[in-house]
Amino acid sequence: MSGAPLPLEDAWAKLLALVQALPAEDLAVGAAGGRYLAQPLAARLTRPAADLSAMDGFALAGEGPWSVIGESRCGAPFGGALEDGQAVRISTGATVPAGSDRVLIQEDARRDGDRLALAGPMPGPGANIRARGIDFGEGDALLPAGSRIGPRQVALALSAGADTVRVHRAPRVAILDCGDELVDGSVPATNGAMLAAMAGALPCEVRRIGPVPDDREALGQALARCDDCDFVLTSGGASVGDHDLVRPALEAWGARMAFWRVAIRPGKPLMVARREGALVLGLPGNPVSAFVTGFLFAIPALRALLGAPDPLPASEPVPAGRDLPPGGERGEFLRANLRGGRALPIMQRDSSLLSPLARADALIWRPPHCPPAKAGTDVPVYRLENGAIA
Ligand SMILES: Nc1nc2c(c(=O)[nH]1)N[C@H]1C(S)=C(S)[C@@H](COP(=O)(O)OP(=O)(O)OC[C@H]3O[C@@H](n4cnc5c(N)ncnc54)[C@H](O)[C@@H]3O)O[C@H]1N2
Ligand code: MOO
Fold first, then answer.
1. Any idea which ligand is nearest the CA of 354?
2. Which of 11, 82, 266, 377 could cross-link to 262 by cystine, CB 3.0-4.6 Å?
3. 107 SS3 class
4. Prediction pTM value
5. Domains identified in the chain and CATH numbers
6. How do residues 24-53 score in pLDDT, each as one tens digit?
7. In this protein, which residues make up the domain named MoaB/Mog (predicted)?
């Protein structure tokens, strides 16, 4: 447990091995935004349910000229069938009547009373018609288990006739700020609010606790308020100082440490533990360290609890905006700005500095002992603005 800090990849693997998606529940489709499907979604309906017009105009049967014998509107389809030489006025999205195989857009039509003639080219068969079932048919598999229900998936599920979807339950999350200096107000307790804002972009129930003093009993009482939580997130007191009491307090509460310390900068003294059904992450107190470990571990853990199949953040190669020195003993996440397709590192690296953190829109990953990188060579970059944490 107190051995060498774990390489990032090993820490991620151990974390994911500890987390299981929470049990499933049925939720009204409109309330399921941000959740992940616990079972696949199949269509209960065919869409479109009938052949529909894609344009405002006239549904035609046979060659022109035509006589207009009625109208098909959304919600009020034309009841009968057309014979050759007949047409109906039709709106976008309205049902194409039987007997018609094409729609003439009104800009290409000349209407005089009930008489209709071409004022443009004759539409071909099927023109301006959305055929029944082109989106999906009843019984079609629409979304596999593990899909995230975003706004587009909400629309799809409703269109497919689902009232509810089976999704993983939203985690109950406790976020504790720890430190005497936060209790007396000499240092503003920024981490809890920051982490709550990060977590709050995902579907979860966040309970803020503290600030809690550096005191075993107080920490014990605070942790007792987390007994019903799925995920407990502390910040501060994770290091080796005399007042870093989070680990013994967690152990006294019944948490079993899975690992402590990851070979990353900032964020080394990360603690990961489990207690009965709950996952526990002890994040370091330095605000940048809390953010980086929140981004790399806490948000992915939340996604995993929600049932995301691929919960870790993804990096992309971006050319470095300047020469970068070789990597050290710990891998480093450099705060950076993406400008003109390049990632420009911010050179203030102290893990207490919030102004460079707030200015950054990306993190450049420098793996341990990596060779120097010349400006213009690709380096792995994690964008901060997507995925809940800007
Ligand atoms: N001898 C060693 N000292 C330290 C080591 C080490 O390996 N050996 N690791 C350093 C690293 S790396 C980090 S990161 C910090 C982490 O320390 P803690 O997690 O124990 O955090 P604290 O000591 O409680 O606080 C550090 C710093 O952060 C401020 N803080 C704490 N919580 C909050 C909060 N909720 N909101 C805002 N600011 C917070 C606190 O006031 C301190 O300034 O340890 C190094 N030391
Ligand atoms: O990991 Mo600490 O976060 O380097 O300052």
1. 1
2. 11
3. helix
4. 0.92
5. 8-23+169-306 (3.40.980.10), 31-46+135-168 (3.90.105.10), 52-130 (2.170.190.11), 316-383 (2.40.340.10)
6. 999 999 999 999 999 999 999 999 999 999
7. 174-304
Tokens linked to 305: 């609890």
Q: Is the bond into 123 cis (omega within 30 degrees of 0)?
A: no
Whether residue 350 is predicted with pLDDT greater than 70 in this model: the reply is yes
Instruction: List residues near ligand 1 (CB under 6 A).
Output: 177, 179, 181-182, 187, 189-192, 235-241, 244, 266, 268-269, 284-287, 289, 351-352
Counting every residue, how long is the chain?
390
The token pair at 24 is: 């499933």
- The verdict on the CB of residue 147 being under 6 Å from ligand 2 is no
**Which of 177, 181, 239 to probe ligand 1 with, by most ligand atoms within 8 A of CB?**
239
Q: Which DSSP string corresponds to 247-295? A: HHHHHHHT-EEEEE-BSEES-TT-EEEEETTEEEEEE-SSHHHHHHHII
